[in-house]
Amino acid sequence: MDNVSLDEQIAALASELAATSALQIIKAVANDRPREGFDHGHLTVFHKNPITEIYDFGDEQLGEGNFGKVSKGTHKALGCERAIKAVAKKKVERCELEAEIAICKLMDHPNVVKLYEVFEDYVHIYLVLELCSGGELLGRIVEEESFSERQAAAVMQQAMGGLHYMHRRCVCHRDIKADNFLLSVPNNRWCPVEQCVIKIIDFGVAKRFTEGLKMYTSVGTPFYVAPQVLNGEYTCACDLWSCGVLTYILLAGYPPFWGEMAELLERIKAGEYSMEYEGWELVSEDAKDVIRGLLCMDQDARLTAPQAMNHTWIKHMAPAALDRPLQAGTLSNMKNFKGKNNLKKAALHVIAQRLKEDEIQQLQEMFKSLDQNSDGTITLQELKDGIDRLNLSGLPENMKELLMEMDVDGSGSIDYTEFLAASLDQQQYHQEKICWAAFTVFDADGSGTISRVELEQVLASGQLAEVMGSQAIDRVLKECDADGDGLINFDEFMKMMRG
After folding, report:
1. How many Å apart are CA 322 and CA 309, to the nearest integer?
2. Measured distance CA(340)–CA(416) in Å, rounded
3. Judging by DSSP bridges, how do beta strands 55-64 and 377-378 pair with one another?
4. Domains by residue range for the chain, with CATH
5. How are beta strands 377-378 and 207-208 bridged, if at all?
6. Is the dihedral of CA 366, 368, 373, 379 positive or negative?
7. What is the per-residue pLDDT for 466?
8. Which of 249, 257, 242, 246 is nearest to 205 (CA)?
9. Rounded to 10 degrees, what is the CA torsion of 206, 212, 216, 221?
10. pLDDT tens-digit profile of 57-111?
């Protein structure tokens, strides 16, 4: 590897990974996978109306795997482009797919890809996902004329932010690798990697875990898999090992462990890697220290995501770190969020999820600035500190009440989409086409009205599960159902949104 350029090394690695695609996922232990992944208490809502009524499909195919293909689709009402993953039902166990969907619906973070909707017909289940137009991380790095250590730190800062959020929600990805990081490009224009938003994708083998309990199914990808996974007893620290491999690749252009499959796995089990090859003398000791901490053989002593984020190399060298103070207009929008009925809050939540990346870029930066410990949520104290930076005369007396109003899912803190929903400007949610897109989410059967059953079903199916009890739904129907027929039509819905 001494005289091979970085681009050539990464390209060779990409080729080698493609060549071993048949071995990409280590076989799951028999009869173990279905038990591991499925949260039986989670209700997944599948749209019954045809996906072609909502989305236009172009000719562009984004990818293809063993279970189906990913195509680009455009929302007919909003004009938003999405990545639509069509999964052939005959090729996958339904409980496994529902497990993946349930986990995706839990995810709400700037560095984790969004799942918008799920459709089903006789042949396929369609996952409507956020479109990341910047492509795969590794492919983009190959295209770069240069890629610096500072850029690598910026990439890992975002990756660790998403991973920290996932682990706080007790979700272990179990297949962290360069292929599973996509880039979202602001305004669909070219920009350096460190200025893109890094998105973690593909939760096909992810698992909800319980603190203190081990996982046992051997899943993952060669090159990236942790030794404990190969030994069949591991924790969510396996994701951090994989991040160590990724960091090594970003700095060196090749993986820390290599060889034929048997030799590769033995090297991983032994933790045999080196940072003594040519070129490593130009890498800072801070970067090497991060790699050592992540590729630690003792999974209990391995760096956690928050520890890695607070390491000097990631925290202080990343040029993509943002420090935008809370804006006065945003605080005003938050205050206006108080008092809105629960259906309107839920509708704003849905609208916030569907806004284009460039439409919410400023709010995204603001969220990261307020989230001082980078755990993916905003606490009451963090919100107070952000308001303090406005230099206003005193804090609102009802600050705690304001937080509770924004905290739609009742978690005690403000999640990313909750923040976006509370901060939206009226201009963004008074437009009929935007409201229609939200209306169709509630109108699951495509009848043109929202029934009580649909309110209960949709609001119980994801992050808004705790929002509306029976009395609250009665109150919403009373407030919004102007003609008293027990249903909410689109005109009534619009009056509620604009009222």
Report:
1. 14
2. 19
3. unpaired
4. 33-130 (3.30.200.20), 134-317 (1.10.510.10), 328-498 (1.10.238.10)
5. unpaired
6. positive
7. 41
8. 242
9. 40
10. 877 778 776 667 889 999 988 888 899 999 988 888 888 888 899 999 889 899 9
Half-sphere exposure of 441 (CA within 13 A, CB side): 26
Angle subtended at Cα 297 by Cα 287 and Cα 2, rounded to the nearest 5 degrees: 50
What global pTM score does this model have?
A: 0.69
Res 23: pLDDT: 37
Among 7, 59, 175, 481, the one annotated catalytic:
175
Q: Is 175 a catalytic residue?
A: yes
Token look-up 């980078």 returns 374
Determine the pLDDT at residue 408: 61
Say which DSSP state 411 is in.
S
Q: How high is the pLDDT of residue 13? A: 55
The confidence score (pLDDT) of residue 318 equals: 39
Residue 499's contacts (CB-CB under 8 Å, 6 or more residues apart) are: none
Residues in the chain: 499
Residue type, 393: S
Give the SS3 label for residue 185.
coil
What pLDDT, on a 0 to 100 scale, did the predictor assign at position 341? Answer: 56
Could you give the CA distance from residue 190 to residue 196 in angstroms, rounded to a whole number? 9
- In the beta sheet, which residues pair with residue 70? 63, 85
HSE toward the beta carbon, residue 271, CA cutoff 13 A: 14
Q: How far, in Å, CA of 347 to CA of 328, rounded? A: 24
Q: Residue 367 in contact with residue 323, Cβ under 8 Å? A: no
For the chain, residues with pLDDT lower than 70 are 1-45, 65-67, 144-146, 186-188, 318-346, 348-360, 389-412, 421-432, 458-473, 475, 498-499
Classified as helix, coil or strand, 403 is helix
